[in-house]
Design brief:
Layout (H helix, E strand, L loop, with lengths): L17 H16 L5 H7 L4 H29 L1 H20 L4 H10 L4 H14 L2 H15 L1 H17 L2 H21 L11 H5 L2 H5 L2 H31 L4 H8 L1 H20 L1 H24 L5 H29 L4 H26 L7 H27 L3
Helix pairs in contact: 1-6, 1-7, 1-8, 1-9, 2-3, 3-4, 3-5, 3-6, 3-17, 4-5, 4-6, 4-9, 6-17, 7-14, 7-16, 8-13, 8-14, 12-15, 12-16, 12-17, 12-18, 14-15, 14-16, 15-16, 15-18, 16-17
Length: about 400
């Protein structure tokens, strides 16, 4: 394990520069949400129901989850660099497929293929764990994801503007252009950080039971998955809430949609500055509490008759703050339970988080109607956040009894 993070920019004989890691993770996050304000326009373009195009969120997340199970062990065996480079190439090809899709079915097929970019998000976290000790990993992951959120924070805003000026295709051309730039940067800067495992690929996959038998790994993974579940439910339901319930334009929806990302940026800043001092467990717990408090306050205001777009989206900022505190720390905890399986742990914990997110995203989309209002979405978010608190408290209790 490296004792310090030493990287020279555009020198792939050293570990990748932090800027490269930020951009890799940022592109993965941006591809998830830049086009969301365009969903109504895309449904009209493909002459299909809005709910069909809304699957572009759920199916994308579902394929993300499956890929993450595979990416970790493969990268632990063959290396981080080749998996990331090939993931970027496949993402670019899939983005072209989305742009030229003749109908909604073909679009959704290529949208699923776009999930190859998840290699960038999974392995940017694993690289951090490769090059710094456990106590520093949470702080560095916090800084990486803090910078990462600048792009997706602006993504829906930019997506709404591009939709209004040029149509939905402009969002995917933007992804393609950024993908090309980041592929070139990764080729020049991405040094290999994997430590040779000495195991075959089959043996690498058989290491999964070692993680699955660890209660602490499950605790961290579930805390991250349940806490972030609120955000994924938001991804599936917020476009409907904004456009159908409150009649927001694509541009205004894009602006409001970035509220959780703004909070996530601040939460990541707190992770970067406080995690090494107060510990990952407390940061995860406090993050879950902040998210639950924000959703609970929003629900209360809706019940009292003060529901509005500003109330709904404004209090989503607290969900973002909570996730920004929870996800980097829970991820660092999951990757540190078995450090020699960092790539596998990153993939498996990410699969649990994204797989659950895919289900919650589709559930939120299915339950919301004009008659129900925003309440089903708020209840989903409140429940998952509360369960996240329970998961991390179980980790804290176990560590008191069995620190190792």
């Amino acid at each position: 394990m490296a004792q310090a993070y030493q990287a020279r920019f555009l020198d792939r004989t050293t570990p990748p520069h932090i800027v490269t890691l930020i951009l890799l993770a940022g592109l993965s996050a941006l591809s998830m949400n830049i086009f969301l304000p365009s969903l109504p326009g895309m449904a009209a373009y493909f002459e299909t129901d809005y709910r069909v195009l809304q699957l572009s969120v759920g199916v994308y997340l579902g394929v993300n989850a499956v890929l993450q199970v595979l990416i970790g062990p493969i990268s632990d065996k063959v290396g981080r660099r080749p998996v990331i480079v090939w993931g970027l190439v496949l993402f670019l090809l899939a983005t072209l497929g989305c742009l030229y899709a003749p109908n909604a079915t073909i679009f959704l097929i290529f949208r699923m293929a776009q999930a190859a970019i998840v290699t960038a998000m999974v392995l940017s976290r694993a690289i951090v764990r490769d090059v710094v000790p456990a106590d520093q990993a949470a702080s560095m992951i916090g800084y990486v994801t803090m910078g990462m959120t600048v792009v997706p924070m602006l993504g829906p805003v930019l997506g709404g503007v591009l939709e209004a000026q040029f149509g939905w295709h402009a969002n995917f051309w933007m992804l393609f252009a950024l993908g090309l730039v980041i592929l070139a940067l990764s080729w020049a800067d991405l040094g290999e950080t994997r430590r040779a495992s000495g195991l075959s690929l089959g043996q690498q996959f058989r290491e999964y039971p070692e993680l699955l038998r660890s209660p602490r790994f499950w605790g961290y993974a579930m805390a991250s998955a349940l806490s972030s579940g609120a955000f994924f439910a938001y991804l599936g339901g917020a476009p409907f809430v904004g456009t159908v319930l409150f009649g927001l334009s694509p541009t205004l929806l894009g602006l409001y949609f970035g509220a959780p990302a703004l909070g996530y940026f601040f939460g990541n800043f707190l992770s970067g500055t406080l995690s090494a001092r107060i510990g990952v467990n407390r940061m995860v717990e406090w993050g879950c509490l902040v998210a639950v408090a924000g959703v609970a306050t929003s629900m209360m205001l809706f019940q009292l008759g003060f529901g509005s777009a500003e109330v709904f989206f404004g209090f989503m900022t607290f969900v973002g703050i909570g996730n920004g505190m929870t996800i980097p720390n829970a991820t660092a905890g999951a990757l540190s339970v078995r450090p020699h399986l960092a790539g596998t742990a990153s993939g498996l914990s990410g699969a649990i988080m994204i797989g659950g997110g895919a289900g919650l995203s589709m559930l939120a989309g299915a339950l919301l109607t004009e008659e129900t209002g925003a309440q089903p979405l708020l209840w989903i978010m409140l429940t998952t956040g509360a369960l996240g608190i329970a998961a991390i408290r179980l980790v804290i209790l176990r560590e008191k009894r069995l620190p190792i």
